Amino acid sequence: MRLRSLGVALVATAALVTLPAPMTATAADTPLSQGRTATSSSAENASTPSGNAVDGNTATRWSSAASDDQWLQVDLGATASVTRVVLDWEAAYGKDYKIQLSQDGSTWTDAKTVTGGDGGTDTLDVSGQGRYVRMQGVHRATPWGYSLWEFQVFGTTGGTAPGGACDTANAAQGRPASASSVENAGTPAAAAFDGDAGTRWSSQAADPQWLRVDLGAVRDLCGVDLNWEAAHAKDFRIEASSDGQNWQTLKSVTGATGGKVSYEVGGSGRYVRVYGTARATGYGYSLWEVAVHTGTTGTPPVEGGGDLGPNVIVVDPSTPNLQQRFDQVFAQQESSQFGSGRYQFLLKPGTYNGINAQLGFYTSLSGLGLNPDDTQINGDVTVDAGWFNGNATQNFWRSAENLAITPSNGTDRWAVAQAAPFRRIHVKGGLNLAPNGYGWASGGYIADSKIDGTVGPYSQQQWYTRDSSVGGWTNGVWNMTFTGVEGAPAGNFETGPYTTLDTTPVSREKPFLYLDGNEYKVRVPAKRTGARGVSWPANAGGTSLPLSQFYVVKPGATAAAINAALDQGLNLLFTPGVYHIDRTIEVDRANTVVLGLGLATIIPDGGVDAMHVADVDGVRLAGFLIDAGPVHSATLLRIGTPGGSADHAANPTTMQDVFIRVGGAGPGRATDSVVVESDDVVIDHTWIWRADHGEGVGWETNRADYGLRVNGDDVLATGLFVEHFNKYDVYWSGERGRTIFFQNEKAYDAPNEAAITHDGIVGYAAYKVADSVNVHDAVALGSYCNYTSDPTIVQHHGFQVPVKSGVRMRNLQVISLGGKGQYRHVVNDTGAATSGTDTVPSKVVQFP
What we know:
Blueprint: H1 4-17, E1 37-40, E2 62-63, E3 71-89, E4 94-102, E5 109-114, E6 121-140, E7 147-157, E8 165-166, E9 177-179, E10 201-202, E11 209-228, E12 233-241, E13 248-253, E14 260-279, E15 286-296, E16 312-315, H2 322-333, E17 343-347, E18 350-358, E19 363-367, E20 375-382, E21 398-406, E22 411-413, E23 422-427, E24 430-432, E25 445-447, E26 450-456, E27 462-473, E28 479-486, E29 498-501, E30 504-508, E31 512-516, E32 519-524, E33 527-531, E34 543-546, E35 550-553, H3 559-567, E36 571-574, E37 578-581, E38 585-587, E39 593-604, E40 611-613, E41 620-627, E42 633-639, E43 654-662, E44 670-676, E45 682-690, E46 704-710, E47 716-723, E48 730-732, E49 737-745, E50 757-758, E51 761-762, E52 767-769, E53 776-785, E54 794-795, E55 799-800, E56 807-816, E57 822-823, E58 842-847
Parallel strand pairs: 16-17, 17-19, 18-20, 19-21, 20-21, 21-23, 22-24, 23-25, 23-26, 24-26, 25-27, 26-27, 27-28, 28-29, 35-36, 36-39, 37-39, 38-40, 39-41, 40-42, 41-43, 42-44, 43-45, 44-46, 45-47, 46-48, 47-49, 48-52, 49-53, 52-55, 53-56, 54-57
Antiparallel strand pairs: 1-3, 2-7, 3-6, 3-7, 4-5, 4-6, 8-15, 9-11, 10-15, 11-14, 11-15, 12-13, 12-14, 30-33, 31-32, 32-34, 50-51, 56-58
C-alpha cells in the first residue's frame, strides 16, 4: 500500500520547483464536482473507488489499475461553463494527461493537455462547456496506476438555455421550507415563502444559520430575491442542491447591507438555501421574503401517461385466439434465457375459460382487477422444465400476479427457480412447485397469496412464503420458510426443513397496475406490521396513482429523458424492453414509484452506476432487472446516500422483485451490486446473481466482489437470494439488521483456495456481519458450495458474525453439492464439517 506521506512529500517538492505557486480554491468556493457521480475505467481495489476523488475528503483517494490508458470522469448533473480544474495527485501521478469535456459522456473535447507533469497539486485554467469532465491519462509517472486524492471542477452550471428567459414568477412561494433554527413560533421558515411581506423568518442569534426551500423538482435557477429585515446577514451564500445534502454555491456575498436585493445566478437544483456565515447585528438572521426564479427554455415537459407500448399484451375474455397469443410468446421465450425479448400479459377483469398460459423467460402475467378474484382463469398458469430436460433449476425471470386460478386438473404447476415471484394469487386448488418428472428445482417465493389446496414443493431445495394462507404443505428438501402464513407447518428445523414464524415484522406489498373503469392506475399498498394472511380483499391503507403521474418508459428512452421526468415529479413505469443508459438514473423525490413490467432490464453503459435513490422516505422499487454492462460499474444500485441517517421507519423505501445480474447475457463487471445506505429499508424478494453460466462468465471476466452491502440501520430483508460473488455475497455493517430466509451458493469458479483466502481464512463467508455491529438477527439461512473449478476447496465457514449478546443467528445450514468442495464449519468455528457427496446439511440451530 502506498502511503499518503510520500504523496505529501512530492507535493512539497513540486511547490519548491514550480513557480508561480498554483491558485487554490477559497474555502467558500465549493467545487461543482463535489458529491457528484464519478466513474472510472478501473479501480485498483474496493477501497479506492471513483467516488473518493469527489467526496471533499483529502484522506481518501481513487486509484486505477496499473496501465497508461485510464480515466476518471465526473457527471456535474447539468451543463456547466468550466473555468478551472484542480487535481490533487497522490504519489502515483499522471505525467501526461488530458482534461476533456463532454455534453453526453460519449463524445469528448480536449480542454487542456498536460505533458511532463510533476504531481502534487495541478491547478488548470480551462474554458469550455460540458456536463461531464474527464481526466484522460496518457502516460503514468510511476509503475503504479493513476491516483487522485481529489478531482475538483469549478465554474457555473445551469441558468437558461440559449434563447431562454428568466421567469418572473416566484417558484418558491408556498413550497415546503425548513431552517436551521427559528427565533420563536411566530417566525417560522415558511413565513419567508408565503408571499406576505408582513411575515418573516428569523433565526437564533448565532452563526452559521440557514433557510431553505424545496421547489419539488430540479429546476434551472436564474435569480434569487431577498427582502431582509433589519437583522440581516453581512456574509452569506446562496446555494442549490439536487438532493438536499450536497450543495453547490450559486452566489457568495460579503459585506452585504441588507434591504431588498436581487441576484442573478446560474445553476440547477431542487433545493435552494440561504446560508448565513456572519450576522450584521447582534440578533439572528431575518428575512421577510425569499423569491426564486427559474429558467424558461421552451423545452416541453415530459408527458405522463400514454399507451403501454408494443410488448404489453392487454386482453379480455373475448380476445380472439387468446390461447394462440400465449403459445406464440411461450414458443419464443421458453428457452431464451439470455435473449432480449420482454413481454407482459395484462388480463382485464372477467372469466377466462380453458386457458393454459405457459410462461417462459422474461414473461409476466397479471390481472388488472383491484383484487385477485376479479380476474378468474379456469385453466392453468404453468411453468415447467421441458426445455431443460426436466431440470427446473434455471427457470428464472418470470412472474404471475393478481389473479385467481381454478386449475384444470385440480393442481397448478409452478416449477420455478430464483427471480420468479408468485404474488397476490388465489389458487382454487393445489399448487405443485416441482417439474414434471420431479427433476431438480431451486426456488422460490410466494407472497400475499391464498392456495386453497395443498402446496407440494417435492424436489424444491428451498422456498420462502410470506403473508399468505395454504390448505397444507407437504415435505421439503432443505430450507422451507414461512412468515405470517396461515396453515403453515410447524417449525422443525433441528430435524427437518421447516422454519415458521407466526407473523412478518414489517411488510408492504408490491405496487401493481390495475384498471379503475377504463383508467389505468397503480395501487401502492400500505405498510403492514406483524402481518399474517393476505392483504386483500380489503386493500386497506394504500393509495392509487393515475397513470398520468407516471412517465411510461418505452424502449429507446434515454437516461436524460428518464431523469427529466423524475425531476418533474413523475413516477416511472418501465414497459417491457432492454434499456441502455449512459448516465445514472437519479431517484431523488420521496414516495417515487419505479415499477417495471415484463422484467424490464436496465443496462448501464460506459461504467456508470445504474440507479441511485436519495435518502428520502417511501421510494418503491419493483419489478425490474439491472444487468451489469461490460465496462466496470462501481455500484449497480445504491439506495440512500453515504452517511445518511434520516429515520424512515414510518415510511420505508422498499425493494421488491428487483433482480441484479452480472454476466450471463455477456461480460459484466461491478464492484458492488446493491448498496443500502438508508435506514429502515425493506428488501422483499431479490435475486442478486453473479452468473455461473451463459456468455461472459469467468473468475475475472464477470468479476463482482460483493452482492449486497448494507450500511444503513434497521434494514429488513425477507426473501434474500444472493449467489456466486468473488468476495462476500452479503456484507452487513448496519445496526439492528434483520434477515428472514437467505439462499446462497458460493462462486463455482473459484480457481483454488489461494484465490479466496483472506485474513488467514479460506473462503469469504456467504453472509458476514461486520465486527463493529452490536445487534443483528437472522433466521433460516443456507449456503451451498459447488466448487467445480477446484473440488478440493474446503471453505472455513458459511457465516461469519461477531460473538456478541445482541447478534443472534438461528436455523443455519451449509451443504456441499455432490462433494464439490466442503465447509469446515457452519458459522465462525461452530458447526460440524460437511463431507462426502451425499448433500447432507450441516446445521446450527442457534448461535451463539
